[in-house]
Structure formats: structure tokens, C-alpha cells
């Protein structure tokens, strides 16, 4: 027996590893118009926009009057995994007022998220305590949720080849910037802008008809004059046509740019750009801007933007403030049926 073991030589071996990794991030949620949110019944919640930490999608559920009868005097805050997970997701998280320092992670337990499960604070704060606190200012307060997404996975073999991300959009953007090979020129607002017929025709049915529908053979150096658009707006339209992304704009100019860009997107039948502008304008709905944005939504059939305006105006206090503005008077002159629809909108219970 011993001779047989000796003849077998050295034992073979193998090894593997379990690698623990984590991704950390945070999301701030501003509750603007706190007193309006108080009309939300117990058990019903308002939801944050979707955000990502660790490659996973999350949302925060805000219950202004608690999530059940036992927490009716409190504000309840919950974190929810906003995706279908094939396995349980482990994470540590804290939720607190943005002004507070984050709690030490060593004191934070690991929570498991899966299916429709939520984790959070049923008695985040008593409403009466919040209303007396420094956290509620100008009818708003901000909370911050910090998340550490924990995952363990089997170690992978070394990777010897790294494939770079796609660069087509960058290359097409460079083509627009340099004008190399351009075969059409647009005169817009006193500026000459060179472009490429094939690129524009592939991105817009309107450009396709304009550039190829009635184009005469050999007319490759034509100049097309556009009188009803600013040069900067047309440049942003072309940039999106080439790169499928928005042209970077100064923060203070965004609110003024998006309405014009939405009109341009509608004019050239670029639906995705139009929806992006709708989404951006939803972030700029305020007392002084909502009449103009609502008129824009009605004229250009932007249903999502119109719903966002109506949701903003569902608060009676906001609606009263908007009615007294000059913008509302112009809205009434241009779209009286829309104003009647707004006036007849039922108030929250």
C-alpha cells in the first residue's frame, strides 16, 4: 500500500477565491412643497427618481403620513431596489437629513433586498417635530441616502485583452466639428454651418426629404437657408443628430435652450430628442415658468410634460400663485380650453 502511494508522486492541487467587493454612492432627495405633500393619505407614498449605485437601480419612497396606522403621526422613508434581481442583493444604507453627518458604517447592519422588499425607517421623524426643526426651511427639506452595495463573486481569470468602448459618436461628432467631406451648408442666423447629407437624412425623415427628395443631380454644394431658428439651437440639433447626445450648455442657459430645441426636434421629426427635452423641462417647472411650459406642451403634444405640469399644479397653493401671474393670462388667451381643464382639476383629498 505504501509503495503504491509513493509511486503516485506529488499530489495535484487546485485553488479558487471568493472576492468581496462593494460600491458606495448616495442620492439626495428634496421634498419641495412639504405642506402640499401632507394631503397624501396614510399608506400612500411619493417616489424619488430612479438612481444608480453599484450598477443597480434604486428609489426612495416617501410616506408623508406614515406607511400604516401605527406610523400615521410620522414620516416614513424607505429604500427600494427598483429592478428585478435574480438573487438577493446585500447592502448597507443610511437615510438622514442632508445637514447631518453620516452615521458610522460600523453601526449599520447589512440588509437584504429582493423581490418587492423595502428597507427603511417607518418612524423617520414625527411630523410635528419636523415642522419645528431647522431641517424644514421654505416649505422644503432634503434627505440623503447613502448606500454600500456589497457583493461577493468568484474570482475571474486574468483578462489580457481590453476592448475600448464604442467611439462612433465621438468620430461623427469630430466629423461635424471639422466639416471634412461636408456636402451641404446651412445658413442660420447669419452663420454658415457645414454638414453631411447622408448623416442627417439617416437621422430625420424631414432632412431626408429636404436633402434628397427634390435634390437635383450634381447639386452637392447647395446652401439651405433657415430663417425660423437661432444658430445655437440648430447647432445643438445637428450635434444630437451626429452623436445622439446633447450639446453641453452653460447651466444658466439650459432652461432657455430646451424649449427652442424641443420645437426644433418636433420640426425635424426627431422624437428621441423631443422626449429628452421634455424630460429636461420637467426639471424646470416652477411657479413663474409653468404657464409657458404648459403652453409648449399643449402646442406640441408633449403628453408627459403636460402631466408633469398638472402634477405640479395639483397643489392648491401653487395653483393660486400661478393664476396671478402674467404668464397665466397669456396661457388663457392662447389655450382657453386648457385653462378650463386646469381649473376643473379636482383638488387632492
TrEMBL record:
PROSITE patterns: BTB (PS50097), MATH (PS50144)
One GO BP annotation of this record: protein ubiquitination
Pathway the protein contributes to: Protein modification; protein ubiquitination
UniProt cross-references to InterPro entries, sorted A to Z: BACK_BPM_SPOP (IPR056423), BPM1-6 (IPR045005), BTB/POZ_dom (IPR000210), MATH/TRAF_dom (IPR002083), SKP1/BTB/POZ_sf (IPR011333), TRAF-like (IPR008974)
Domain MATH: 24-147
Domain BTB intervals: 182-250
Coiled coil: none
UniProt signal peptide: none
Top-level taxon in the UniProt lineage: Eukaryota
UniProt similarity note: Belongs to the Tdpoz family.
Protein name: BTB domain-containing protein
Record organism: Triticum aestivum (Wheat)
Amino acid at each position: 500500500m505504501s509503495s503504491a502511494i509513493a509511486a503516485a508522486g506529488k499530489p495535484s492541487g487546485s485553488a479558487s477565491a471568493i472576492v468581496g467587493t462593494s460600491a458606495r454612492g448616495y442620492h439626495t432627495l428634496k421634498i419641495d412643497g412639504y405642506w402640499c405633500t401632507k394631503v397624501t393619505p396614510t399608506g400612500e407614498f411619493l417616489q424619488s427618481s430612479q438612481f444608480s449605485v453599484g450598477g443597480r437601480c434604486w428609489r426612495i419612497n416617501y410616506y408623508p403620513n406614515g406607511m400604516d396606522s401605527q406610523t400615521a403621526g410620522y414620516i416614513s422613508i424607505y429604500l427600494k431596489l427598483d429592478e428585478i434581481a435574480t438573487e438577493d442583493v446585500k447592502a448597507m444604507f443610511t437615510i438622514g437629513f442632508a445637514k447631518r453627518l453620516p452615521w458610522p458604517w460600523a453601526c449599520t447592519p447589512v440588509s437584504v433586498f429582493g423581490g418587492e422588499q423595502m428597507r427603511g425607517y417607518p418612524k423617520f421623524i414625527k411630523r410635528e417635530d419636523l415642522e419645528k426643526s431647522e431641517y424644514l426651511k421654505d416649505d422644503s427639506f432634503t434627505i440623503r441616502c447613502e448606500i454600500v452595495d456589497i457583493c461577493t463573486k468568484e474570482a475571474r481569470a486574468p483578462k489580457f485583452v481590453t476592448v475600448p468602448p464604442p467611439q462612433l459618436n465621438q468620430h461623427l461628432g469630430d466629423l461635424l466639428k471639422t466639416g471634412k467631406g461636408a456636402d451641404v451648408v446651412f445658413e442660420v442666423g447669419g452663420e454658415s454651418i457645414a454638414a453631411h447629407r447622408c448623416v442627417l437624412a439617416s437621422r430625420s425623415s424631414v432632412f431626408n426629404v429636404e436633402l434628397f427628395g427634390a435634390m437635383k443631380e450634381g447639386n452637392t454644394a447647395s446652401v439651405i437657408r433657415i430663417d425660423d431658428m437661432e444658430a445655437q439651437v440648430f447647432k445643438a440639433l445637428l450635434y444630437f443628430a451626429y452623436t445622439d447626445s446633447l450639446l453641453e450648455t452653460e447651466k444658466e442657459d439650459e432652461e432657455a435652450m430646451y424649449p427652442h430645441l424641443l420645437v426644433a426636434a418636433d420640426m425635424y421629426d426627431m422624437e428621441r430628442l423631443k422626449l429628452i427635452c421634455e424630460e429636461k423641462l420637467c426639471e424646470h417647472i416652477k411657479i413663474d415658468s409653468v404657464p409657458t411650459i404648459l403652453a409648449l406642451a399643449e402646442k406640441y403634444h408633449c403628453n408627459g410634460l403636460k402631466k408633469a405640469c398638472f402634477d405640479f399644479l395639483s397643489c392648491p397653493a401653487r395653483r393660486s400663485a400661478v393664476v396671478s401671474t402674467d404668464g397665466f393670462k397669456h396661457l388663457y388667451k392662447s389655450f382657453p380650453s386648457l385653462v378650463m381643464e386646469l381649473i376643473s382639476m379636482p383638488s387632492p383629498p
